[in-house]
Design goal:
It is a single chain. 25% of the residues lie in helices and 27% in strands. By secondary structure, the protein is of the alpha+beta class. It has a single domain, classed as Histidine kinase-like ATPase, C-terminal domain (Heat Shock Protein 90, 2-Layer Sandwich). It has a six-stranded mixed sheet with strand order 1-2-3-5-4-6, with helices on one face. Helix 1 runs antiparallel to helix 2. The N terminus and C terminus are likely disordered. Keywords: ATP-binding, Kinase, Nucleotide-binding, Serine/threonine-protein kinase, Transferase. GO terms for molecular function: ATP binding; protein serine/threonine kinase activity. It holds the Pfam family HATPase_c_2.
Length: 168
C-alpha cells in the first residue's frame, strides 16, 4: 500500500501515558514500551520512523533522569495518521540547552541536538510543576526521495520555548 493510499485512521489506542521513576533503569522500559505501542498502530509505522521515535524517547527520558532531579517523569506518546508526538514531563523548570558534545564519552552533550535534528518540531513548555519537552516525528518518509540518504536530507525543524499559559 502506498503512502497516498494509507488509511487516515489510527486503530490502536492513539495515546500512551506512563509515569516512570526518574532513574537510569527507566530508559530501557520506556524504549520497549514505545516500540510495543508503535507495533500496534495502523497504518503501520515504518522502520525508520519507529527507530527515530525510540531514539527520541530514549534521549528525552535520559535527559529527565540526568538533569531534572525529580522522583518521577511522565512519558506520553500520541499518534495520528501523520505523526507521532513524544512528550516527557519532569519536575525541573530548567530548560534544555545545547552543549558541546564530550567526545571522550564521559559527559554526553549529544542528545538534545539529536532530538532537534530528528523531530520536525520541538517545544519546551514550563509550568508550575516543571517542564514538558514535546517532539513531533512524521510517520511518512517525507525526508527523502527514492535512493536518497535520509541522514543527508535537510530537516524542516523548528524549536519553540513557551511558558505555560503564554503563547509562543
Amino acid at each position: 500500500m502506498s503512502t497516498a493510499e494509507a488509511p487516515r485512521t489510527v486503530t490502536a489506542s492513539p495515546v500512551l501515558e506512563l509515569q516512570l521513576d526518574c532513574r537510569s533503569d527507566a530508559v530501557g522500559p520506556a524504549r520497549h514500551l514505545a516500540g510495543t505501542y508503535m507495533a500496534r498502530l495502523e497504518p503501520s509505522v515504518e522502520r525508520d520512523t519507529r527507530e527515530a521515535v525510540i531514539l527520541v524517547v530514549s534521549e528525552l527520558v535520559t535527559n529527565a533522569v540526568r538533569h531534572a532531579g525529580g522522583k518521577s517523569c511522565t512519558l506520553r506518546l500520541l499518534a495520528d495518521p501523520a505523526s507521532i508526538v513524544v512528550s516527557v514531563s519532569d519536575a525541573s523548570p530548567v530548560l534544555p540547552r545545547p552543549r558541546t558534545p564530550d567526545v571522550t564519552g564521559d559527559g554526553g552533550g549529544f542528545g538534545w541536538s539529536m532530538v532537534c535534528r530528528i523531530a520536525t518540531t520541538v517545544e519546551v513548555s514550563r509550568g508550575s510543576q516543571g517542564k514538558t519537552v514535546t517532539a513531533t516525528i512524521p510517520r511518512q518518509e517525507w525526508r527523502t526521495g527514492p535512493g536518497q540518504d535520509a541522514a543527508a536530507a535537510p530537516r524542516p525543524a523548528s524549536t519553540a520555548v513557551r511558558r505555560a499559559g503564554h503563547p509562543g
